[in-house]
Amino acid sequence: MSISDPNRVPADGPAAGQSGRSDKRQFRVQRLLPDDYRLKGIAADLLRGLTKKLPELYPKWCYDPTGSEIYEKITSQPEYYLTDCEWRILNSYSSEISDVANASTLIELGSGVSKKTVRLLEMIHQRGTLNTFIPFDVDETALVRASKKLLLEHPTLDIRLLVADFERHISSLPRSNSRTTIALLGSTIGNFYPTARLAILRSIASWMQEDDVLLIGADLIKAERRMVNAYSDSAGANESFAKHALHVINSEIGANFDTTSFTYEVAWNPIEHWVEMFLVSQQSQSVVIPTLDLHLEWPAGSRIRTEISTKFTNEFLNAELSAAGFTVTNRWFDGGSDFVLLAACLDSTMTADSGR
Ligand SMILES: C[S@@+](CC[C@H](N)C(=O)[O-])C[C@H]1O[C@@H](n2cnc3c(N)ncnc32)[C@H](O)[C@@H]1O
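Above are the sequence and the S-adenosylmethionine SMILES. Below is the predicted complex in structure-token form.
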């Protein structure tokens, strides 16, 4: 691929006129999302979500440049323990984790602007076998921002950004015959409703080969107040993220939500085992979405669920991964057993059965 290839982005400036040295420090961007992906996807999810008895939105659409920045702020709030816990696990067990996750290709689903990627890459890269890193996310700006930094730290690594949706595009991941580790960190899997969660895990299993490893970070059930506080930080970062969902719908689909009249609420749902985030309308409002021919009346006090964050037990994670075709091989916990990092491989009995 030449230096003028539009899919190559230099690590430290525009591509034109770069020296041979800079030429090496570039990463490739592959975009699997069609131009109308957001418009069509948000519209379909609005029709699906807003017409439910308890209307719901899907946080995937919040991850645009603004949303990813807000998410980054969330991760540095003192109440949001998840990032610190996972970071501690990666540091405390770096040698064991890199033994297990040692591979020539690392794919990180929902990579975003993750600072943890740096640690994970360092750990596996030190083993000397890693040559390709594929950060995969719906938000290209977050990928580019993170990868520019990574490339400066790992100039020989082949970094291939994949702008894609892991609910749709796992099967399009590039496949080599060498060992691959797929990472899904930050308890991102917990943001999906159970059917979607299982579908994502199954599509990963279908893509994986016998020697590959799945590394998955998941938040565990703990004291209710701690779980709820993580999503109701005093600086209001989580609230901004939830409200950003309405801004996205207004600006991208032409809805007329009065974003100022919503308050933010967080609750633990003990039946579903998830923390749920709501926006509650403080006054009645008529919401019109002309492009969808949708006219909704929102009485004062009506709620929209903007996000869930499922909290797991070890047994439940085992069962879910097993249902998706995996066997859990390793578990690492932070000191307080708040969070778990799991390694899983394909269940050999299922592999044999399905002739994979
Ligand atoms: C909770 S954040 C986690 C970010 C990072 N991995 C971490 O651990 O801090 C979820 C990330 O997944 C991405 N994401 C969410 N749904 C996605 C989807 N369906 N396909 C691809 N990326 C997705 C978001 O853009 C965001 O960067």
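Confidence is low (pLDDT under 50) at residues 1-6, 13-23.
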